Amino acid sequence: MSGYLNLILRLVIWFLLTANLSVANIIIGICVALLLPRGRSVPGALKDWLRVLWKTVVAIPQAYLEAFELIFRPHTHEEIVMERVKPRRSPGLIFLDIFVITFTPKTIVMKYHEDGWYEVHLVTRGRR
What is the pTM of this model? Predict the structure, then answer.
């Protein structure tokens, strides 16, 4: 099951990069998705994929709210925090986690540590 989800993820990334849904581009995208190396395989539960996809959908309005907040109430402080990666994450799920964190204007993943941590840069209003 996770093989199909990884293939779909690769195709979605291909279509986002090319912004072209012609028949020729779909065929090229499928070929590229199948030819890319797979690396180590970690089984990703369907429940984990659905949870991350839901977080992606929720991140869209959150990104707009944060953008308006940054415009009307400037944030002048920055901090670096370490966020724990959930155990047994497949590379596709790690990619989606990083995408969701980076999608919102106040946060960006600076580095993924192989020992299970994301280094996240936050923009905040001030010290609490």
Answer: 0.67
